[in-house]
Design brief:
nine-stranded mixed sheet; Transposase Inhibitor Protein From Tn5, Chain A, domain 1; alpha+beta; about 450 residues
Length: about 450
């Protein structure tokens, strides 16, 4: 069956007005291209064609408290003319298996290229689009395939972790939290390796703010050299050393740092030294800190503004909190038990997060506030409620209800942040004194 006919079936399916709020953001041709470019387009009339499975993956990302089959039933995902339950558990599993991970990755990259970079372009600082890079981890179901592929964290007094984990590094437009690019995989691979995969997505005339663990000559020089006017900003480590070359102002210096022999042995093309700008600052009640950056011109980029903008790095941490606390309900466990299913589901989670964030940015525009002033919790809950409500609503009432929805969400505009508040990092949960359950090496059972 031609892909065009399959899309017509999807468009005519009963209840698909449910998706109008989100479908308006995703060009149907992108879905078609995602399926065709990865060879997963439905070639015959199936109970769940690939086009609808894409929306199912997004649905299970938003409805963590519902089973996958329940999500399919609630969203009325089926071809026209069907009767009875939408799809059986086996049909959903087979449909997800046929789809694979590649179309979701392709669709995420296409959508993020359109949404996140446009958002960053709208909220520039001194001509630079502001991005952040940071990493996090996600816990995975304890299956043999996941253990073998992703691995378990090890170390500490309690030995290796109880569940497999993956490592995720994202490039985000900091002023809207929209994710521009992501790289993830086995836990044993370091964050710097995943971050290097993201540099191709960083546009010219941009500033990338990073955690100090990314302070690496090989990593940061490759970012500066990849394009025109691409810059970085990070905090210095306590072990960072440099030689002052020139004083650019009070607590503001042009410095030269040595590239370690270990780094040059891995990449002989690296220079022996590299230059940066070092800015010293101190927050009341805290120790003095140093920032390092490739923004060398003190006239074009004043030190005081650099200090202020560095703290926007925390916006990516808040984005991760929105995903792990709000979308994943603090479970932080992806449902799938195979590496392919994990990749498919995670691309769906990131795409669904961007869809919610894109809608929040449009609500913020209507309300005349910054995107970060809209409550993610309120927006997600109302969007999910509206999506589910629309499944049983008359099509003619949906536009009016969606308009009312946007007006309602405006009530959840957050107050301005009190920037002088400080929350030092601390451990809040005491480690259990019980022995950790371990799996048997013979049959995989716990003992």
């Amino acid at each position: 069956m031609p892909i065009g006919h399959a899309l017509e079936f999807v468009a005519e399916a009963p209840g698909l007005e449910t998706f109008d709020n989100f479908r308006s953001h995703i060009d149907p041709s992108w879905i078609q291209a995602a399926l065709e470019s990865t060879g997963t387009a439905s070639m015959r009339r199936r109970r769940l064609p690939a086009e609808q499975v894409i929306w199912l993956v997004l649905g299970i990302a938003l409805y963590r408290d519902r089973s996958i089959v329940h999500v399919a039933d609630s969203l009325d995902l089926a071809l026209p003319g069907s009767s009875g339950p939408t799809a059986s558990s086996s049909a959903v599993t087979q449909a997800r298996s046929r789809l694979g991970a590649e179309p979701m990755e392709w669709l995420f990259r296409t959508c993020s290229d359109e949404w996140a970079h446009k958002s960053a372009d709208r909220h520039r600082w001194r001509g630079l689009a502001i991005y952040g890079v940071d990493g996090t981890t996600l816990r995975l179901p304890d299956s043999d395939k996941n253990r073998e592929h992703f691995g378990l964290p090890s170390g500490g007094p309690r030995g290796s972790a109880a569940y497999p984990q993956l490592r995720l590094v994202c490039l985000a437009a900091l002023r809207s939290h929209l994710i521009a690019a992501a790289s993830f995989g086995p836990y044993s691979t370091g964050e710097n390796a995943y971050a290097a995969d993201l540099w191709s997505a960083v546009p010219d005339s941009s500033l990338c703010i990073l955690d100090r663990n990314f302070l690496s000559a090989a990593l940061l020089l490759s970012l500066v050299q990849k394009g025109h006017d691409s810059h970085w900003l990070t905090r210095a480590k306590t072990t960072s050393k440099w030689e002052e070359l020139e004083c650019l102002g009070e607590d503001d210096y042009l410095v030269e740092m040595k590239v370690s022999p270990q780094a040059r042995s891995k990449d002989p093309s690296l220079p022996q030294t590299w230059k940066a700008r070092a800015i010293r600052y101190q927050i009341r009640g805290s120790k003095p800190q140093w920032l390092l950056t490739s923004l060398l011109d003190p006239q074009a980029y004043p030190a005081r503004e650099i200090v202020e903008i560095y703290h926007e790095r925390w916006e990516i941490e808040m984005g991760y909190d929105e995903i792990k606390t709000d979308m994943l309900d603090r479970g932080e466990t992806i449902r799938s038990k195979s590496p392919v299913g994990i990749r498919q589901e995670l691309w769906g989670i990131l795409l669904a997060f961007n869809l919610v964030r894109l809608e929040m940015e449009r609500i913020a525009d209507e309300a005349g506030v910054k995107p970060t002033r809209i409550s993610f919790v309120a927006a997600q809950r109302f969007i999910c409620d509206e999506w589910m409500w629309s499944a049983g609503a008359a099509p003619g009432t949906i536009p009016r209800h969606l308009k009312k929805l946007r007006a309602t969400i405006k009530r959840f505009i957050l107050p301005k942040r009190r920037s002088k508040r400080r929350y030092p990092r601390a451990v809040k949960i005491k480690m259990s004194s019980y022995p950790r359950k371990r799996r048997s090496s013979q049959d995989g059972d716990a003992k």
